[in-house]
Design the sequence.
C-alpha cells in the first residue's frame, strides 16, 4: 500500500502525540487538528486518506464534523468515543462514520483498524470488471464504486457498499452479524454487532427496498440478515 495520510483530530495533545507516533512508525504521513473547525479546514487542505476523529471536542463536536465532511467526501472516518457514549457512537455510524473505537484504547488497535478500513476502501483493484451484480431493480458495480437502484444512482458510503455487496453476493443465504463484521471489517467487535444493524438500516433507507420491491434485505431475528430476490 502506498504511503497514506492520516488526519488525527482530538483536543487532547497527548492523544494526538501518541497516535502520531504509532502511525508514523507504520509509514503514514500524519496531520493533526485540535478542534472541529480546524479539522474541516485540514480536510480541505491535506486531503487525508483516513481520519481519526474524536467526538467530544470544542468549537464543533465530532458528530457535526462527520456530518459536514459527508456532504463533500467519503473519506474513511474512525471515531473515538468514551465507553458511556453509546448514543453518540450510534449517531456517528448513522451519519457515515466507518468505525468507532472506545476510549481508553490501544494505539496499535487504532492503526490496525485504520489499515483494515484502507484495504477495503482504497484498493479497487481487488474487484475485477466482472464483479457486477445485476438484478431486477439493482445493479452493484464494485469496480466502479457505483450502485443503481430502481433506475437511479445511489450514493453509498464505503462500508455500506461493502455490506450490500456481501449480502447480495450471498443471495438467499443468511449471514450472521458476526460473519458480516468479519467479511466487511476484517475483525471482531468483541460482541458489539450494532454497527451491522446501523449499516443495514441506512442501506434500506437509501435504496428504498421493502416488502413490495423486487428484492429486499430481510432480517433473520436473532441471527443476522438475508438478501432475497423475489420472483
Sequence:
Amino acid at each position: 500500500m502506498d504511503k497514506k495520510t492520516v488526519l488525527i483530530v482530538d483536543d487532547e495533545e497527548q492523544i494526538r502525540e501518541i497516535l502520531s507516533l504509532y502511525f508514523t512508525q507504520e509509514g503514514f504521513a500524519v496531520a493533526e487538528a485540535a478542534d472541529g473547525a480546524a479539522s474541516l479546514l485540514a480536510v480541505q487542505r491535506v486531503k487525508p486518506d483516513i481520519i481519526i476523529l474524536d467526538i467530544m471536542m470544542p468549537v464543533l463536536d465530532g458528530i457535526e464534523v462527520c456530518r459536514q465532511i459527508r456532504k463533500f467526501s467519503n473519506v474513511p472516518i474512525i471515531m473515538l468515543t468514551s465507553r458511556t457514549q453509546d448514543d453518540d457512537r450510534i449517531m456517528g455510524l448513522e451519519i457515515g462514520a466507518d468505525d468507532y473505537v472506545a476510549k481508553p484504547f490501544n494505539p496499535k488497535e487504532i492503526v490496525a483498524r485504520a489499515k483494515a478500513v484502507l484495504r477495503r476502501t482504497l484498493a479497487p483493484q481487488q474487484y475485477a470488471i466482472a464483479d457486477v451484480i445485476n438484478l431486477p431493480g439493482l445493479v452493484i458495480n464494485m469496480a466502479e464504486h457505483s450502485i443503481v437502484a430502481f433506475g437511479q444512482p445511489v450514493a453509498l458510503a464505503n462500508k455500506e457498499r461493502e455490506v450490500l455487496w456481501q449480502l447480495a453476493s450471498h443471495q438467499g443465504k443468511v449471514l450472521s452479524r458476526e460473519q458480516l463484521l468479519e467479511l466487511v471489517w476484517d475483525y471482531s467487535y468483541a460482541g458489539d454487532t450494532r454497527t451491522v444493524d446501523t449499516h443495514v438500516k441506512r442501506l434500506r433507507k437509501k435504496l428504498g427496498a421493502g416488502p413490495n420491491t423486487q428484492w429486499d434485505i430481510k432480517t433473520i431475528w436473532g441471527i443476522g440478515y438475508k438478501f432475497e430476490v423475489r420472483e
